[in-house]
Specification:
Shape: globular
Distance between the termini: 24 Å
Largest sheet: 8 strands, mixed, barrel
Structural class: mainly beta
Oligomer: single chain
Order of helices and strands: EEEEEEEEEHE
Length: 138
């Protein structure tokens, strides 16, 4: 089974930023909500090991769902740019940059080139319906 790892590298009151690895190869940046005691729709998920599975969702199309997060459900890995694009999900991108978030009407760190990073993520998981996701904090 393929193993993907997210190493969270910066945590703030607005977001959790990280790097995603395929085995030992870094290939994408990640953005999640900040830690808020695992509260649904407001928090990143706890560090740990999870199974992810391929699903199809109306809003995001084909994506991967993170399973067995204590007290949580419908946590996905998908495209986006700002923390407000997530309700506890993991957003992928290629570059961090400060940008005006129209939903919050303030400048925050955004993750850019999300479509490119997401395409690479899906390519790395071609022909696989499940994988293991490890989330670490450094």
């Amino acid at each position: 089974m393929k193993v993907l790892t997210i190493k969270r590298i910066a945590m703030s009151a607005v977001s959790s930023l990280g790097v995603m690895f395929d085995e030992q190869t870094p290939f994408a940046l990640t953005m999640e909500l900040p830690w808020a005691n695992n509260e649904p729709n407001k928090s990143c998920i706890p560090k740990g090991e999870y199974l992810i599975r391929r699903v199809v969702k109306i809003k995001h199309g084909e994506c991967f769902e993170i399973l067995d997060v204590p007290g949580r459900s419908d946590i996905l890995i998908h495209k986006g740019n700002f923390p407000t694009d997530s309700r506890g999900c993991v957003i992928l991108g290629e570059q961090f940059e400060d940008a005006l978030n129209p939903a919050a009407d303030k400048v925050v760190t955004a993750v850019l080139a999300s479509g490119k990073a997401y395409s690479e993520f899906m390519t790395r998981l071609s022909y696989q319906d499940r994988a293991k996701l490890v989330i670490l904090e450094v």
